[in-house]
Amino acid sequence: MSNLDNTTGIVLTTGYRLSFVCSVLRSAPPCSKFFSVKHTADVQYSINPPRSEADHLSPIPLNDDTVLLFSMKKASEEENDNKLSVRYYGTDKKMLGTAVLHLTAVEISLDVDADRDGIVEKNNPNKGCWKWGPDGHGAIILVNCDSERRWRKLDHEQDFIDRESDLKDMTTMVLRTKGPAKLPEGYKLTMHISQGDAESIRVYTSADGAVGRKCDLCFSSFQPRHRYPLILQSACLSAEVLYRRGFAENKFYVEGIRFPDKDFDGLVTINLSLLEPIGPGIPETPIFTDKVVLRIAPWIMTPNTLTPKEVFVCSTTDNYTFLKEIRSFVAKSGHNLKICHEYMNRGDRWMQDEVEFGYIDSPHQRFPVVLDSPRDRGLVDFPYEKLLGPDFGYVTKKAQKEDVNSLDSFGNLEVSPPVTVNGKKYPLGRIIIGVAFPTAAQGRNMTQVIQDFLWAQKVQEPIALFSDWLCIGHVDEFMTFVPAPDKNGFRLLLASPDAGYKLFKSLSKQGHGNATLFDGRLIGVETETPRPVDDILNDEELQDHNNYVQSCIDWNRDVLKRELGLDEGDIIDLPILFKLVKEDEEVRALAYYPDVVNMLVLGKNLGIPKPFGPKVNGRCAIEAEVCSLLEPLGLSCTFIDNFASYHQLLGEVHCGSNVRREPFDFKWWNMEM
């Protein structure tokens, strides 16, 4: 008789078709030349290479490459409730022996929300890969970077779940099984991940969903201490999971613990294997593996064109006037103002520089996430202590202290509205940062860890502008975006010395050459000498300064037009003059008067630094020019006095404020990549 006589076997599936393969020749007695097959009602089979239908009615020739493929129509209700037998014949077609295989069919499927509709469907055929786009597939994980607890600690910094509310921040994964009351003796289900993926995710289950056993790597006994025990992590890459009788669903919860970055593309794989016993002292062998592929959601920035939710500013000992005017402006705009008081800001007023508001999104959950800059000045504790909480996440990137400079503050981090560039769509806009000029041997740059993080998010491909020509070096000193009712739905505003000189020459030509800048404006304890328009126009050194600045802005203008797909009709030039000063042996630029492009955008309401320009008929000519450029777009201009408390300290309204906005309606996973 064959060595398969009365052998048991298990038939596996990730769906309804239950299949198995075996070599017919391997079990055949010596001198076997033919074979035939019999089976119970729920077993189906085929032969490879294929035979004609007539061949199946009589003993079938047995060749070296003959393979029998058999399947079962449904899962077993009991162990060994089906069988298949193979009879072997010699040359004269006399029977030489029979091989019998007793079969147990089990349906096994590891499932996730692969079609991204918020429901974990059964055995999606695309669950084992990840594809971008509206017809894409693949599940999504959120980094669990909020804090559900009364104490301030990121949820992913602890390796247990003690609140039900934390589960909504995790991705549900379901192990579906159907079969007899138990697996055949010695068979085990094991879930496992790679060491690399274990640095990015953890997997939890319910207390009755895991089996107490020794972890293959950390050699510690599994003893559930919580309702949702941790089963997979960097110290334990595999764990036995429970097989439940009949039709059963076992839920698991996947937690993201880090964002995509330079060394991590965001994709992870979770495997489920059935292990078969071989013999005493011999390791079990995987005879079936199902897998799911998931992507960790990127951090997404929000542009000025999205609806504001909250406005943040600081209260300091010397910004009462500014705070009063900001409060009035925000209230008029219909939004909520939150003030960071001195005990928390410790004299640091630059709210824009400390944090950047964004969010993370998935089909099952979405919440805001603040990116904390590495500048670490007086506001260093504000995002962690005042923003982090339930459904409000936090992320930061640590840099060496000696590597951090002014360009790492987030006035140097902006994002455009959605654009299309040469047919390529950027439905979430593009990140904009400032760096040193590409050919400069020396210069300041945004620290590499921040740049790596921003590029790794993929969905808002960054653009690098030249901003090192400025003393502070932030892109928000010479550009911003405002909503518009036509064209692309926005306008790019650029600082323009040329526009400034054009305005001043027009004033002089109209007989207003004696109108003065800074008329009576207090500068600290002294009064700035009012400077007539004609005096400014006759200052050749100042003109040289601004020719240089205009060339720097023009270089960036060309980059922005090319990288955002803009034309001249999408750009508005605001009249701003600059001056050059020497700083650390480097000559760099500052705004000569309050920089009107550095504004706070709240929908159609613009909070603009009051420029204190020359007055004509009782009205500031610079304010009048700015209004004439922006009000036709349906925008409302409010000019805010930030001269003493911000401008003289080398910042303006935008530098001293920050806005959390509504997220995009567009879902990032629908991007065409």
Automatic annotation (TrEMBL):
Its main location: cytoplasm. Residues 106-276 form the Protein-arginine deiminase (PAD) central domain. Its cofactor is Ca(2+). The keyword Thylakoid does not apply. Residues 20-104 form the Protein-arginine deiminase (PAD) N-terminal domain. Signal peptide: none annotated. Keywords: Calcium, Cytoplasm, Hydrolase. The active site is at D353, H474, D476, C655. One of its GO terms (cellular component) is cytoplasm. InterPro entries: Cupredoxin, PAD, PAD_C, PAD_central_sf, PAD_N, PAD_N_sf, Prot_Arg_deaminase_cen_dom. Transmembrane segments: none annotated. Residues 287-670 form the Protein-arginine deiminase C-terminal domain. It catalyses: L-arginyl-[protein] + H2O = L-citrullyl-[protein] + NH4(+). It is found in: Cytoplasm. The keyword NAD does not apply. Its EC number is 3.5.3.15. It is an enzyme of class 3 (hydrolase). GO terms for molecular function: calcium ion binding; protein-arginine deiminase activity. Belongs to the protein arginine deiminase family. PANTHER family: PEPTIDYLARGININE DEIMINASE (PTHR10837), PROTEIN-ARGININE DEIMINASE (PTHR10837:SF8). Catalyzes the deimination of arginine residues of proteins. This is Protein-arginine deiminase.
